[in-house]
Amino acid sequence: MAESNEHQPLTEAVYYILLALHTPMHGYGVMQFTKEISNGRLSLGPGTLYGAIKTMLERGWIQALETEADSRKKEYEITLAGRKVVQNEIDRLQELVKNGNSITRGE
Length: 107
Description:
55% of the residues lie in helices and 8% in strands. By secondary structure, the protein is mostly helical. The longest helix is centred in the last third of the chain and has 25 residues, at 80-104.
């Protein structure tokens, strides 16, 4: 049975991988997307990426798409459960920013 864990904080790498997979893509595309959207701050190595993909597949947050038999590239896409996880993380991060702003701007 797939684990939910949909309310746990995400690592930055997992967050960006899930964002990338709103559009189906292969691993190298995810690495490029992540580097681009983070302005080069986050550069995923293959070990990090494929370890995270394995975990997210097990949790049901992403799914592998059917590929042609002779294709070596696997494509992945986010699932409905993964979309819920991303939205929960966005809500959590917005709360952090709101709390930080209310305290620091009140000084």
